[in-house]
Amino acid sequence: MSFLYEPIGLSHYLAVGAFLFVCGIVCMATKRNALGILIGIELVLNGAILNFIGFASPYFRDENLGLDGHLIALFVIVLAAAEAAVALAIALNFYNNHATIDVDRASELKG
Amino acid sequence: MGEYFAGWFPADWEFLGYTLAALVQAILLIHVIALGAFVFIWAERKVSGRIQDRLGPTRTGGKFGWLQSLADGIKLLSKEDLMPKDADPILFKLAPYVSLAASFTAFVAVPFAAGWVALPLNIGLFFVIAILGLEVFGVILAGYSSGSKWSLFGAMRQAAQVVSYEVPLGMCVVVPVMICGTMDLVAIGEQQRGWFTNWLIFHDPFIFIIFWVYFACAVASVNRAPFDLAEAESELVAGFLTEYSGMRWSLFFMAEYGSMILVSLLASILFFGGWNGPIPIFTGLIDWFPDYLGNSWVFTTFANLVGVVNILLKASIGVIIMMWVRWTFPRLRVDQVITMCLKYCVPIAAVCLLGVMFWTALGIGFLNDLVPSQPRAMVRESWVEEGQRREAKRFDSLQTPSTDSAKGEVE
Amino acid sequence: MSELLLAAAQPTINWHTVMFYVTAIFACGFAVVVTTTNNIVRMAFALIVSLAATSGLLFLAGAYFVGAMQLMIYVGGTVVLLIFGVMLTAQKAFITMRTRASDWILGLLVGGALFSILLQLAFLIPQWQSSDYQAAADAELAAYVEKLKADKADGKVITQEQRDELERLEIAADDGMPQRSGEIGLALVGVRADKAQRPDEPGLAGYLLPFEIVSIHLLVVLVGAAYLARARRHSHAGASQ
Fold this sequence. Notes:
The complex is a heterotrimer of chains A (about 110), B (about 400) and C (about 240). Chain A has about 110 residues and is mainly alpha-helical. Helices cover about 70% and strands about 0% of the residues of chain A. Chain B has helices at about 1-5, 15-50, 70-75, 90-105, 125-145, 150-180, 185-190, 205-220, 235, 245-270, 280-290, 295-325, 335-360, 380-400, 405-410. The interface between A and C is large, with 76 and 97 residues.
């Protein structure tokens, strides 16, 4: 358990961020429920926030992003809220018009 | 406290000391909340009884029935633990704990006296409000996982209500933050030292209105009558609680009482001076004899204990007013609840926010300036104070020629 | 022998590291649950835990304000909205929708490849693999105290500036909290308290314009979402007429 004795570095944060990102990507690719895809997007954005905060943290690098990283993370959070509201409105509209939430059935525009 | 306990242990085992300190604080907090729920459940029965011209419980435990909550608890413990066939078993079992954990976690950042806080955070207020918003997940999970339409309706109402009431609630708590210039709850409380005229509710007329908006939103966000649509028994059987019984039901109940105490504590810190009594007995004594009393550990601890009594009294008054409201007003309809939030609370809070902003910017005096205490900017956030304390300790060790070096020379 | 040397060099467990691993396991584990479960409601619940654990990671990196913001807006607002959507569409047929095996294989292949590349990139730079922040802060504090002691021995009086510097070093060494909520607020109205404004680089350092754009954006989203939610009622009214 020697890894518990060493301070963690930026790489660990990047690894967790990458894991969340990939989980989100796989989630977006495999779910058929429109809201499941939305949940995948949230995970992807979360990985991005984690990266920004990791790069901004003075604990890991001397030349960190500093406040810029924090502010960009805040903007990501706010935009995620906006995105969720619009995506939810679209999903609910889709559900109302087609009586399903399965994105594979959203094929009206298919040629 | 952690450092004090850490001193008991040998070099490599200091973490045991910190764990011990954390345990002591956790046990203290849990007991405050659990005993609070215990007392307030009894008080609610007595208050409701008196309001309805009844006596309330009279038999269990003497004349006033003060052991009624214990009897209730034993009854709930011995009830059969039922789970509906359609329920989602994992989420159904998890939901009460989510609710309870969210309600209790928020207490971590709430100070009970000057510096007596389990987790000193420079964003304490923000943290508490954020955690308070998480309690709704327990209700939503309970509502969905019960597999009953009454539960689902109750949970959806609750979700809509909590999300919309977070907006005016946030606007109300921003006002004390704006006046104090910090989100550290300890610093906000300390800035209201002195006579009761220094309490923030007397800062200007607008914040007086803001307090009532805060109170309404707090009642709504902890889901109490007249805003308890999620469990409106005349429409929804018991809402999200329909399928719950026994211990799980009582966990939801404890979470509700926990958050009632929490919003009352917040109200007393933000508007009513927190742990400062109406008459500054202890701070006055410290100001007169700073050398003797200010440095006396026993005296400051005693002052803080009285402060704890103060803040708990203020919070209890808040909770009892919530009970009074519950047993006096009829329940609102769904549309009335949302109307009240969007058409009344938000505009009033916004106008008063602007009002307080101009009042502060123009420097108009009000009751706060009658008997001013120390200037607000003099009160530092707790992390600054901690740094100053460490620096002072180090400085003292530098000033007095250290005994180690003296010993070294002798040897 | 080498283990003994290691233990002698770093005798104590780093609790920051332990907390990081515990929180990271929560975040990653529940992210896996999000990806693998078919039940949409359990997915939403796992997302809550994953996001809350991520906010714990933000706290551990010293970003207190962003962490609380994540709890408040993301977990308390956005996900409640999501769950609201889930419950509005939660009919038996849509709660568990199975994914085809081919989709799974393709998704896992692409995801696995992406993750292996990202992981290699994350651990590519040796300086990023560990942090000497605590050691450096401790060393700086110790050096400063030694310097003050030497000054004291020379008979110099410790000035207020030196005391302030000592206080800063104490805070940096003890908890290293970057206390940034006030600075974030200032930056959002266009004043950077952390970066001194240089004459050759005027403006553009604050975030006033992005802040305004985001607030207008939120307003537009609000109106748009309300419009989308109303649209169905209009079309039905039109159809019935």
